[in-house]
Write a structure and sequence with these properties.
Elements (H helix, E strand, L loop, with lengths): L1 E3 L8 E7 L2 E9 L4 E15 L6 E16 L11 E4 L3 E3 H14 L9
Parallel strand pairs: 5-6
Antiparallel strand pairs: 1-7, 2-3, 3-4, 4-5
Bound molecules: zinc ion.
Length: 115
Amino acid sequence: MKIEFNKISQNGIDFETKQDGIVFLGTAKKINKNLIKCTGTIEGSFTHCCDRCGDDFIKIIKQNIEIYANNGLYKDDYDYINLIEFFDGFVNFDTMLQSELESFKCDYLYCSQCN
Ligand SMILES: [Zn+2]
């Protein structure tokens, strides 16, 4: 799901996107000319290989997310921890979800027996 930067106002716009059984939904709000703040939740489950015993298990996620989208190269001084730059004039919520999931899966995840 993509929304044009120009269409997102200070009042906010709702978004919802889904990928492999995981839903990312929330509100996108304009902070300044180029910057959009997205607040929402990521919820769902995925199959993961336990980082200790190697067995596949179902990992359930339910997480509040705050992520920023910048229209073009981000040049301001303030360092946002979670910021993605987009260069085609659109906020791509699938890209956001993907990047959140990747960082989530980077952590060591253990099955219920190993946890
Ligand atoms: Zn395990």
